[in-house]
Amino acid sequence: MSSSDPSVQRPKILIASLGTRGDVQPYVSLARALHAEGAEVVLATGEGFDDMIRAAGARPLVLPINYQTLLGSTSMREALFSLRGMIQAARDTTRLQQEVAETLYRETLSEKPDLILFNVKAATITIAARKLGVPALPTCLQPILAATSDYPIALFGLPNLGSIGNRASWWAFRKLFYLGIGHLMKFMTGLTGEDHKKRGDLVDGFDPSGGAVLSLQGYSSALVPNASDWPAHVRSTGYWFTEPDAHYSPPPELAAFLESGPPPIYVGFGSMPSKDPQGFTQMILTGLERGASRAILSTGWGGLAPHDLPETLRSRVHVLEKAPHSWLFPKCAAIVHHGGSGTTHEALRWGKPSFISPVFGDQPFWGKQVATIGAGPAPIKQKHLTAETFAQALKDLEQPTYRQNAEKAASVMAGEPGAAGTARMLIKTYL
Q1: What is the DSSP letter of 206?
Q2: Confidence band (pLDDT; 50, 70, 90) for 68?
């Protein structure tokens, strides 16, 4: 349906994805693909992503929350490391969550989209979809929506619990989720005058026809095989990757380092906070001294500068503030990271083995999946990581079988629909 004729009214698609960059960037890629198919795309998310969204041909709808700032707050840092901290953080952000939900609801009604896509954190948008009478499709970047007996939900670091236990884990997540947003449900009932609990799960979306709602699983079957008991409305799409920027020019120091020797190991933990940034940094540096010939060290977690490197590392470790993963990873030998869905997929996309040191959420799940398919050593939780175990993991990454299995995963990913295939399917099915 792609058309450049301005007289042709384009269908409007509203995408709502709440979270940090890892939660937003895949949806920007999908927005770009939908725009290429001729749709007008509005992407509702928190502050800080406007330029990225506009560059994809979409229009940002900025919600009153900055997740990067929030993640850096004391209460949110504590939430990552204790149940007590999690409960306190939820209390501290109650009003903020309500403001986001209200803004998303009112702006969606104002936009009047023809189709809505949302991630779980933005599930209250289903209320607006019901009022407008338009489809709202749930999406996810990790297995948290489509219940199955084949494996447990990708949260809490659960082992395989058997068919009954696995399915129970999905039920438990739904219960916990609605317990967590109980105040939002009450708030939205007061705002709209409707009891939304009686109209089905918000997480499952809405189809005005009354039929089953298409549920998009935006992760690769190379890591998580399609479940044998998924119903027909559950659709595996593969990950929604960002295409490499052909015009990107790296900093001269980075280019020179890459050209000066064999491919390095990339080491980066994103913006994941640490209880002890200085101690964690020292442990990483000691591990690099013992276990890696060449490495690129990303500074996301704590302000490391090139002059902070020990003299013994300065010739073989490059400190990097940032560079696009889609440009950098193909030039690396292996990837060490925290196990976010995006970094996990990006590493395997280029056939690179990974060592994952997770902190929370779905990260332990991705670490386990990478090890299960033989594309990297077993994960070690960040709180248990030592200089010795880190150095050994770096040496383990040199095993040829890890690279071979990562390359097999890359081949599978290359054949999946991805952002472009998902966009074509959505246009054909709904618009």
Answers
A1: B
A2: confident
Phi first, then psi, for residue 216 (nearest 5°) are -95, 125
Q: Does the pTM exceed 0.90?
A: yes
What's the pLDDT score for residue 93?
A: 83
Phi and psi at residue 396, to the nearest 5°: -60, -35
Write down the residue that tokens 């269908």 correspond to. 11
Given a contact cutoff of 8 angstroms between Cβ atoms, the answer to whether 301 and 273 are in contact is yes
Angle formed by the axes of helices 182-192 and 94-111, nearest 10°:
40
Integer angstrom CA distances of residue 29 from 33, 36, 80, 141: 6, 11, 28, 13
Question: What is the per-residue pLDDT across 157-209, written as a single tens digit (0 to 9) for each?
Answer: 888 999 999 999 999 999 988 888 888 999 999 999 887 766 678 999 999 99
Share of the chain above pLDDT 70, in %: 90
* Rg of the chain in Å (alpha carbons): 22
> Closest Cα to residue 365, out of 205, 169, 181?
169
Return the pLDDT at 279. Answer: 84
Which region holds residue 270: left if phi is over 0, alpha if psi is between -120 and 50, else beta?
Answer: left
User: Is 155:365 a contact under the CB 8 Å cutoff?
Assistant: yes
CA distances from 298 to 47, 305, 317 (A): 23, 10, 10
Which domains occur in the chain, in start order? 12-239+416-430 (3.40.50.2000), 252-414 (3.40.50.2000)
Task: Compute the mean pLDDT over every residue in the chain, rounded to the nearest whole number.
Answer: 91
Question: Which tokens is 115 given?
Answer: 């189709």
Considering only CA atoms, which of 405, 369, 409, 354 is closest in space to residue 160?
A: 369
Q: Which of 158, 211, 59 lies closest to 361 in space, CA to CA?
A: 158
Cα pseudo-dihedral 18, 25, 231, 115, rounded to 10:
70
CA distance linking residue 381 with residue 338, whole number of Å:
9
